[in-house]
């Protein structure tokens, strides 16, 4: 797996809403905004599934995803790609469930998406646009 740099982790921590992209097995894309997204460690992202529909269907049949890290407070942007494991039980899921419930009872925390980072790409415009960073 790939480990984010300190600068990337700092940028990630500043973003509140992330675009989260998936695709069906047939390649039909889907992107949604997610708020319950956090770094579990340097190479793992936790995403709580509260209201996923197409996203969950896509991950069930094609367990890869991408997150876009961007915002005015970040000063740049990068794309993270990774492999996703869906958890609906166990210690990690219970921690994610408790975290969602701490934010409000309206969040069902149906599952935890554990994304292992496989690649990171540059997103800002210029000669390095699309360049693989990690």
UniProtKB/TrEMBL annotation:
Residue ranges of every copy of the Pyridoxamine 5'-phosphate oxidase N-terminal domain listed in the record: 4-122
One Pfam family, short name: PNPOx_N
InterPro entries xref list: Pyridox_Oxase_N (IPR011576), Split_barrel_FMN-bd (IPR012349)
SUPFAM superfamilies from the UniProt entry: FMN-binding split barrel
Domain of life assignment: Archaea
PANTHER family associated with the record: 5'-PHOSPHATE OXIDASE PUTATIVE DOMAIN-CONTAINING PROTEIN-RELATED
Protein's name according to its UniProt entry: Pyridoxamine 5'-phosphate oxidase N-terminal domain-containing protein
UniProt organism field: Methanococcoides vulcani
